[in-house]
Design brief:
This protein is 26% helix and 23% strand. It is α/β, with parallel strands linked by helices.
């Protein structure tokens, strides 16, 4: 099981995502370092977890259609050795490619995440079928799909790496959703890597997520409390607690 730390970005700061209620997101208060500066918090998450992957949710892009391109470039160029999963509200593949092209060689570190909340239509998802980097996010809030293009109803088009983004669990402290992911797995046997999101409070929740079929989990709030065991991301120590499943 892999833990993937998350930074939610709004207006140049890291904000504390809670239950998908985006109008109420405030600058994060983290035990890892003072302030809400994205570069400082990215470094703190890398130091805490030893991760090789960071997930960026650019809420300016998702909500307003104006990705924070300059900030995204600064982050990727600061740590080109990391994999950067970025959701900036891409409607089509070309939107994400513009950022990758602007980064030059550093663009190789970008893994574009396409959310059902944002994708323009079915044709936009079909166009991603031959892109080995692309990640699909099945977005949901209040137990309802966020899916104007009806892509939850096209499991045959879900990508090999697919996220189950249960926003009502994000920042809730209520524990992970362990029912939705197994149900979706049965619909899309071509998906080879399932990523959960939201609700993880401690390493035991990661083990429960692995038992439910997740290969990785996106985590934010729990890492900022100061109580997460340093370095517990993946590898032998983590794998021994995942009911025989690995990422």
């Amino acid at each position: 099981m892999e833990l993937i730390p998350v930074l939610d970005l709004r207006a140049g700061q890291v904000v504390h995502a809670r239950r998908g209620e985006r109008g109420r997101y405030a600058p994060i208060e983290s035990a890892l370092c003072p302030g809400a500066d994205p570069l400082a918090l990215a470094q703190a998450l890398v130091d805490l977890t030893g991760t090789r992957t960071l997930y960026l949710a650019d809420l300016d892009g998702v909500l307003d259609g104006r990705p924070q391109a300059a900030l995204l470039r600064r982050l990727v160029q600061a740590w080109p050795q990391l994999r950067w999963w970025i959701d900036a509200g891409w409607q089509r593949r070309e939107d994400a490619w513009r950022l990758r092209d602007a980064l030059g060689s550093a663009g190789d570190a970008v893994v574009p995440v396409y959310g059902t909340e944002s994708l323009a239509d079915r044709a936009a998802l079909e166009a991603l079928q031959d892109d080995p980097r692309a990640v699909l996010s099945l977005d949901r809030r209040a137990s309802r799909p966020m899916d104007p293009a009806g892509l939850w109803d096209c499991p045959q088009l879900w990508l090999p790496t697919t996220i189950v983004m249960t926003l009502e669990r994000v920042g809730s402290g209520a524990g992970p959703d362990l029912q939705t992911l197994p149900a979706l797995r049965r619909q899309a046997p071509q998906v080879t890597r399932w990523v959960g999101s939201g609700g993880v409070r401690h390493p035991a929740d990661l083990a429960a997520g692995a038992a439910a079929g997740a290969d990785a989990w996106l985590v934010a709030s729990a890492l900022h409390t100061g109580g997460w065991p340093a370095g517990r991301v993946s590898g032998k120590e983590q794998a021994t607690g995942t009911a025989g499943r690995h990422s």
